[in-house]
Amino acid sequence: MSARRVVAEVGLGSRTIDRPAPCAWGAPAAGVERPADGGPGAAGCPRAAAKLRVLNAGERPEPSLLARLKGVAALPYVEGVLALPDLHQKERMEVPSSLAITTANTIVPEFTSVAINDGMGVVVTDLEAREMSPERIERFFTCINANSAAHPLDANRYSLSAGDLARAAFEGGRAVLGRYGLAPAVLDRMEWGGRLPVPPGRDAWSQVVPAWLRASPLGRSEMGLNFGGNHFLEVQVVDRILDVETAARWGLGRDQVVIMYHLGPGPFSGTLLHHYSRREKLSPARAPLFFLSKLLLHYGQRRRAPGGTGPGSMRRAWSLHFRRNGWTAYSAESEEGVLIRQALAMATNFGFAYRLATVAAIRDALHEALAPAVRAELLCDISHNSIVEEPLAGGTAWVARHNACRLARGGPAIVAGSHDVPSYLALGVPVGPEELHSYDHGAGHLIEARRRAGRLEYAAGSTTRLRMTRGRGGRIGSLSQVPVCSSEPVDRLLACLALNDVMQPVARLRPAGTLKN
Predict the structure, then answer these.
(1) Are 272 and 343 in contact (CB under 8 A)?
(2) Residue 183 burial class via C-beta count within 10 angstroms: exposed 0-12, middle 13-18, buried 19 and up
(3) How distant, in Å, are the alpha carbons of 129, 273, 343, 506 from that of 278?
(4) How confident is the model at residue 22 (pLDDT cuts 50, 70, 90)?
């Protein structure tokens, strides 16, 4: 299926296309021809512009946002900046969302969220749309919510022991397979097999993780069921197949029910990484507690531990971990660089274990609330906050993604809509530009911009929206039926990515019910 035909089917219904859908390059990368009119966001700084590539779905980035990206591109250790169609700036975040930044032998924590390995996944069932009435959707959501944690120290059905936590930090998803009764094959559906290797180092567990976090239930009680904030659990129905062959290979058919989740990485990961840089989003109320904990870790625990750092590194530790630097640049092979790599790997690995608790909870709730024999099989689980060393241009580079996903060429991709806007499953185009290694995890900003402008049109059908408090005694806060809206903003985003040989859509997923807790 050609990119042009994909645009026709996804973005514009059955209409014939005589020209590409809106998808322009902003500040082009080296070797990319600029449109005759200079293109939206044409570069004003040649060296920064050579490293900056901007994809858009017909709307130019704001000049202030583009200037910010040029500033990042101008940093000496930055090799490339890829801005994606849903680009936007969130409050108190160092970089915009829908962004990927490539660096040479340098790790900058502020180039992504402290919620490393936040992610989404899709669980395929053998249920059909006609079997999921609003009443059954409510029953499923109520069942799964009953196992959530009412507060951070509330142990529940999926909580981990202290030993489980340590194993999860090093082994990732593999550490909890037995705990959750999952087959090893589930790891094949997760990025990197559900585990990043932790760089070797003497007694890394005691060097990297604060003693209190290793011992406390705070980091391991709430597992896999926090659907607050922008996180969600959603019952969806396959309402359009765009790639029949791939959909069949993935076990998808028209009117089939799937469950999409968005959450993570759990309390351990963010708490750990807050000890390695001072972030804008750390609340003033929590800052003194982290300051004290960082003092104990970097000037007490690490110096006493076998192989711990000595007094000569005290000034460097203060500069890296305590100051608000804007960009905290770690040399990847330095002593402190190995330390942050260990922390990032542990935080990422815990995120995999955390979301396997979600997969197990979905399976259990389907069996207990609906039918014991319902199929519940993970199709894919994909992170959208990461810092990972990857092959690039014949060597390797560090790629930081903020609310952007790593593109697996020939593999599945998820682009989320909203509680009332369809999402998509897509397939990474097998061969395409190496520098286009990432994609938007969703189209939330494009959707809300269209909604605010009064241009988000209604489509057919409605969806259940349920809000509950968490825990065994969780109460329903609101339950409503809301109309499903057009997928047009997501279609435009996908059309842009298809035209640039990033991905092609496989199936559209219409929301049937959403849980927020």
Answers:
(1) yes
(2) exposed
(3) 47, 9, 15, 41
(4) very low
